[in-house]
Amino acid sequence: MTQEDIRESARTAPLSPAQHGIWFSEQFDGPSSVYHVAFAHRLRGPLDIDALDAALTAVTRRHEPLRSRLDLSGDEPRQSILPVAKATAERVDVSRHPDAETEAVRAIEEHVLRPFRLDAENPFRVLLLRLAQDHHILSVVLHHICADGLSLPVFCGDLAAFYRGEPPPPLADGYSAHVRRRLAEPPDTAALARR
After folding, report:
1. What is Dmax (Cα atoms) for the chain?
2. Which label site among 14, 15, 43, 195 has the fewest CB atoms less than 10 Å from its CB?
3. How far is the C-alpha of 52 from the C-alpha of 164, rounded, in Å?
4. CA distances from 43 to 36, 38, 49, 132, 184 (A)
């Protein structure tokens, strides 16, 4: 493997078997909200929106799957890891609506149910609803191709730490780092010969 191959593998990565299954299902059935992992959190008190956007950007810098696109490379899908770009929450002010709570629920439902285009957009999005000056709801939707139930506490913990200006805990290696490491290692021909 050449250095150029290693550099190229750092920009793209194969899908894990679970991701491949999700990708295939979406190709077969079409995009839907079936694979969405979502949560909403009510925020009371003053909110620093610039700090929230900075925290979202820091989370996408830390977690490559949040800034990936899926592309076909030949017949196989691959993840293209994009450079870090500023991440922002979509903002909707429902504070002047006669029934702000009902309007917030409607906006969250629309946010959660809107399908992702995995070849054209990040596999997560954030909506910040303003119900009053010191009352917001943060709605986060992640596609299951980049997150699962076990990743939600990591995402939330990292977002909170970055918002407070604190360092998050160390990360374990992800699947793409494992594949890159394996591709950079010389093959164990002795082990292959024993098979």
Report:
1. 73
2. 195
3. 9
4. 22, 16, 12, 11, 45
Show the tokens assigned to 105: 């629920």
Q: Is the pLDDT of residue 2 over 50?
A: no
Tokens 């793209």 found at: 12
Question: Domains in the chain, please, with CATH?
Answer: 16-172 (3.30.559.10)
SS (H, E, C) 89-154: CEEEECCCCCCHHHHHHHHHHHHHHCCCCCCCCCCEEEEEEEEECCEEEEEEEEECCCCCCCHHHH
Instruction: Express each pLDDT in 136-180 by its tens digit.
Output: 999 999 999 999 888 899 999 999 999 999 999 888 765 555 555
């493997």: which residue's tokens?
Answer: 1
30: left (phi over 0), alpha (psi -120 to 50) or beta: left
What are the tokens at 111?
Answer: 């946010």
For residue 42, the tally of other CB atoms under 10 A from its CB is 11
